[in-house]
Design goal:
homodimer, alpha/beta, 434 Repressor (Amino-terminal Domain), Rossmann fold, 3 domains, 6-stranded parallel β-sheet, 13 helices, elongated, DNA-binding, transcription (chains A, B), LacI/GalR-like_sensor (chains A, B)
DNA sequence: TTGTACGCGTTATCAG
DNA sequence: CTGATAACGCGTACAA
């Protein structure tokens, strides 16, 4: 190293007696390189502890070694789990995670994202629902040469760009579980309008009823927006019904906790007076009382897979898994209806 | 703009008829500039929509316009709230947030962080507890010219580098609340060893007992590690005691939820048979049944303040608030002891 | 297979 | 106050 700071590619070149281009080739694993030369250079690199400067690389390559997480997801658990999954595979790589929340609903959202991608030039971008469903976002990433992976409740892009769960089938199984326990009047707390996940879960609910020959009644469906409070409000509507539903499927755990809360306030016993099934298997599901029967959404696994798609060498050919199955977790919030 | 991409500083210089250094001065708000020249340049900038390239700036300045969040915090809610607070002020600035979790306990943690700071050259760094208590981390940031702010349960650095809450006083108040409700046998679920927050909260607990002339009994203290499961285990130990404590202060909400869970499993009624007070006011506190009396830790506010310290123009002089008060939130988990 | 010369877009130096 | 010119550290034609 020359003066104060860090060793540069020039130092390595000088010490190894080669040109800096050769060092550059070593760094970037160029295939056309004399093995002997490579080893000599690598030895010097290791000796002086040289590490390429990311800023200079970014300038020359017009690409940063950053993975962007772009989202407007209202569910903290989802976001956090995704982050953890992503970071798990990014750790020990040269990539760092840059979190960029946006405001869907804002008319400038697309511009915001464009500026982000244009300026930061991330190597790859992870798109979370619900904005992951927006095709122009994906196009935008492609336009700037950023890899992207979209997360969703159904496959709506190529395997290379997609990690999807099959929410419809999972919910169908969950509601069938309720039916097999003897329930016929089953409420649905729907997710927010415009969310693909809300739609898929609704479809699963209706499919299960259909399978069992139970007619779908609109009054048994209450609108929610994935928040605890909306779950409480939905429960108030549902529990005012006469006859009351004996079970409720809630499109996520947070709302299910809200349903449980309201039911409790009304003096109902769970699961005796009301069975509840949620979706996500977030921590709250196992921490409330009684523990919630729910659908385990393998979100961290999906995030890990997404990270691999984003940074992996191989292009396109073997994109890895892109469909992940959710499974029912049976706990104490479901019982047979009280006669 | 010349060819395909974005306009550069050269385009601006050419169109404005000045040198690019002058444009650079405009961008960086250099004070020594002819007002007329400045206006002309700014006009051109606005017209062609020029935006400086962050990569080039980073290379020349040896400093990225990124704020790093370095942490090894076991509590997802804490991390997420900090992120939200940070992002709230970073939004609409040129800064982005880069999240870098580390592994305390790993012998290479300091090296990991050094490499991160050395390579990414973040403009500023936010350090979360418990690693924020590590002075060598702070020194490391300073060494690389990165601003830093440490978050903690007590002030252990200059105002400029600190956002602190006064946990001790807050817990003292919370436990006093229990005492005033008539409790004398009050259990403590302690936080993990080596955490300043755990220590401060314990001190607050003991101070409150002392104020009331109640002797501190070691058997009434159970070790926890801030996880739900550790709260359950702590409760098992505490509830096996004879006579049983009539109330428990838990050093965070997650463990308090664990205590509540275990108490429930044993058929205890909350708050009739056991009063519980938590700490944090995370979402679970208001979502479990009964809603938890807890100490509201203004963590998002602290994070916002930290972000301002990190990016604000003024140096040192007016560093803004650095001490934040936590307040007791009274809900339904506390009652007078059953005679 | 390797090296030379130059470009990436910005800031710093130091003269005018 | 302003402008040539040289960094900043690395990648890429293209030549050797």
């Amino acid at each position: 190293m020359k003066k104060s700071g860090q060793a540069t590619i020039n130092d390595v070149a000088r010490l190894a007696g080669v040109s800096k281009k050769t060092v550059s080739r070593v760094i970037n694993h160029s295939p056309l390189l004399n093995e002997e030369t490579r080893e000599r250079v690598e030895k010097v690199i290791a000796e002086i502890g040289y590490v390429p400067n990311p800023q200079a690389r970014a300038l020359a390559l017009r690409r940063n070694f950053l993975i962007g997480l772009i989202h407007d997801n209202p569910n903290p658990h989802t976001v956090l789990n995704v982050q953890q999954g992503l970071l798990e595979v990014l750790r020990d790589t040269e990539f760092e995670l840059i979190v960029h929340p946006v405001d869907r609903g804002s008319p400038t959202m697309l511009d915001d994202i464009r500026r982000f991608v244009e300026r930061q030039r991330p190597f790859g971008v992870m798109l979370l629902p619900p904005i992951s469903e927006n095709d122009s976002l994906a196009a935008l990433c492609a336009e700037y040469g950023a890899r992207y992976v979209r997360m969703g409740s159904a496959a709506f892009d190529d395997a290379e760009h997609m990690v999807a769960s099959n929410d419809r089938e999972a919910v169908r199984g969950a509601v069938t579980h309720l039916i097999e326990a003897g329930h016929r009047r089953i409420g649905l707390v729907l997710g927010p309008h415009g969310f693909r996940s809300a739609f898929e879960r609704q479809q699963g609910y209706e499919a299960a009823l259909h399978d069992a020959g139970i007619p779908v009644q609109r009054t048994l469906t209450a609108q929610g927006d994935y928040t605890f409070e909306s779950g409480m409000r939905a429960a108030e509507r549902l529990l005012d019904l006469s006859p009351r539903p004996t079970a409720v499927f809630s499109s996520n755990d947070t709302m299910a906790a809200g349903v449980l809360h309201t039911a409790r306030q009304r003096g109902l016993d769970i699961p005796r007076d009301l069975s509840i099934v949620g979706f996500d298997d977030t921590s709250i599901a196992s921490q409330i009382w009684p523990p919630l029967t729910t659908v385990r959404w393998p979100i961290a696994t999906m995030a890990r897979a997404a990270a691999l798609k984003l940074i992996d060498e191989e292009d396109a050919d073997d994109a890895g898994e892109s469909l992940f199955v959710s499974t029912l977790v049976r706990r104490a919030s479901v019982a047979a209806p009280a006669e």
